[in-house]
Fold G-protein coupled receptors family 2 profile 2 domain-containing protein.
Amino acid sequence: MRLTDRERLVIYYFNSISNGFSILGCLFICCMYIKFIELRTFPFRLIFILSIFDIFSSIGYMLPTYFLNDDDVLCQIQAAVINLFTLASVLWAGIIAFSLYYIIVKSNFYIQNYMNYFIIGVIVLCIIVTIIPFITNSYGTVAGWCWIKQDGYYDSKFYERYFLFFIPLWTLVVFNGVLYVKVSKCLKENDDSDGTRSGLNRKLKFYPMILIICFLPYTIKSGLEFKREGFTMKYDYEITIVIATVRGMHGFLNAFVYGFTKKVRRTLTRGMSEEDDSEISMRLPVREDDK
């Protein structure tokens, strides 16, 4: 069942609201990184880059394409931006897991010297993956936005959608899960007098869960759509609203779980206290003895 223009507009509103929250969360992380020098460590730099990818991904989803056709320029731009930066965000989550594994389990701190290579590698790979659907003319309208079309046939669009996104996505979910289990095991075996390791260990399980929560509904819907399941076709509008809302929160959840750490909270609290003290001192009258 094809969605009406009004239904696509409503989906766009839900999509924009959730992605708006994601942008705000990511901007908070970026501002913290830029403002406070003590936060410019290697782990937080990884989170800063993840936030940049998530911001552009959310901007892509917020482009107003609900009234456009497959061949419209803005629709093609949205599909490319979504494809590039969503995949970049997923890949970078894998880089974070890989880096934590090498630092904590392997005690190899030299991995931070490869940061630029990681960035270049992820961007180049995502650009290649984004160009392929352009060549095969596979980008077009899907539900409330534009991405790789799905026609219900084993054609190029099917292979591009699954082999260029869904299969790498779930491979990385398994990869991240395995690495985080190894990191968690290592943290439990080491001394934790200050509670830092146990705090990190409690958060580790949320990292792969973010990908599962945000992308599992869309993956299931995509598979059911391909099989032309009656339930999906009948409730396409309602299901797409849920998917748009949940997937749009990807950046917000990343910012909250990865970035809102104890160190960030302490730094923010201290920064606000210093600003309050500075403001109070500026308002105090100057005594004659102090001149």
